[in-house]
Amino acid sequence: MQTRAARLTGALVALVAALAAGLLTPRTAAAAASLGEVTGFGSNPGALRMFRYDPPDLPANAPVVVALHGCTQDAGYAVSSGWTTLADRRHFSVVVPQQSAGNNLGKCFDWFRSGDIERGDGEAASIAQMVDRQLADVQGDPSRVFVTGLSAGGGMTAVMMAAYPEKFRAAGIVAGLPYGCSEAAGGPYPCMYGWANQTPAQWGDRVRRARPGYTGPWPTLTVLQGSADATVKPSNMTDLVRQWTDVQGADQSADVSDTVAGYPHQVYRTPAGQAVVETYSVTGMGHGQPVDPATGCGTAAPYVLDVHLCAAYRLGLAWGLG
After folding, report:
1. What's the pLDDT score for residue 34?
2. CB of 164 within 8 A of CB of 128?
3. DSSP summary character for residue 219
4. CB neighbours (10 Å) of residue 5?
5. Crossing angle for the helix pair 152-163 and 122-138, to the nearest 10 degrees
6. What are the helix (H) ranges across 164-301?
7. pLDDT tens for residues 125-180?
8. What share of the chain is helix, strand, coil (3-state, %, to 5)?
9. For the chain, how many helices (H) and strands (E)?
10. What is the three-class DSSP state of 122?
11. Backbone dihedral region of 313: left (phi > 0), alpha (psi from -120 to 50 degrees) or beta?
12. Cα dihedral value 16, 21, 23, 24, nearest 10
């Protein structure tokens, strides 16, 4: 068994390596743990709580990232997933909605409930109000707002893309679900198990009905999914690709197929050459958020998994944040 001294030595070596790589600093490690709650951000029809992280040196006109936690989690997800550390390094703010057991006993965002997934209603409207409040408070850039989430937070990310597409430039869904999946499959659990049976056009129509008359631009999408996920089956990533390539006018064939950190990675482009959907299949990973603590990205925890791939970093890279 490894001694306590050996464990401390190993931890120190990892910390020194991260410092040398510029991925972590003593200031950011301390600052990232500090989330502030915001009240009075709107009518809040979904009865959510709003937290945020604003780096000390946040400039005006900075991007905003909305980070949506998974079931049983809370706003601390923004810290454990690495988003607050990345915000310190890349100078953007993070909005962190938090669910309550009063809304959902498992503290899951209600991505499957009709009163919470339409424009102007419930939890979706509360999250949209948080975005507006944050942009006003920090003088953020409304053209650089992004949304991401894990599991139920990933399902709610798809909701925000569909119901409020004009608010978000891009999105990142981690182990999440397509918009309208519960209705298509006959319930949330059949959806999670991959039993929805829809053509790309049917998936796309579900999005288009959420924002009638909207002609774009739609948010681009990056999906990260564990190949061994038994909670949200990997077929949901396939359905997300079908849905959002159809919405974006791209075909179902990947234009790029390679590996990143040893994991299969694909990119789908429109006929004009714009990358609109990107996927990472994290081989062997179960249900959770990919992090890479050795490089200063996140902290392993339940549903936050050290797989030597940092989802926050990869999303930030796709979005021009780092």
Report:
1. 86
2. yes
3. P
4. 8
5. 80
6. 181-185, 188-192, 200-210, 235-248
7. 999 999 999 999 999 999 999 999 999 999 999 999 999 999 999 999 999 999 99
8. 35, 20, 45
9. 11, 12
10. helix
11. alpha
12. 30
Lookup: tokens for 235? 């077929």
Three-state secondary-structure class, residue 224? strand
- Burial of 3 by CB count in 10 Å (0-12 exposed, 13-18 middle, 19+ buried)? exposed
Q: Distance between CA 59 and CA 48 in Å, rounded?
A: 27
Burial of 143 (0-12, 13-18, 19+ CB in 10 A): exposed
Known catalytic membership, residue 80: no
Q: How far apart are CA 300 and CA 96, in angstroms?
A: 19
Q: Which residues pair with 171 in a beta bridge?
A: 147, 221
Active-site option among 81, 93, 126, 151: 151
- Nearest Cα neighbor of 242 from 285, 309, 180, 321 is 180
How is 78-103 classified by DSSP, letter by letter? HHHTTHHHHHHHHT-EEEEEE--TTT
Determine the longest span between alpha carbons in the chain, in angstroms.
Answer: 64
User: Of 87, 29, 24, which is closest to residue 58 (Cα–Cα)?
Assistant: 87
Spans of the chain below 70 pLDDT: 1-33, 322
* All residues at 6 or more sequence positions from 183 whose CB lies less than 8 Å from its CB, including other chains: 206
Give 311's DSSP letter: H
Q: Is the peptide bond before 59 cis (omega within 30 degrees of 0)?
A: no
The position carrying tokens 């991505």 is 111
Tokens of 201: 């056009």
**C-beta of residue 58 within 8 angstroms of C-beta of residue 52:** no
Residue-level pLDDT at 322: 61
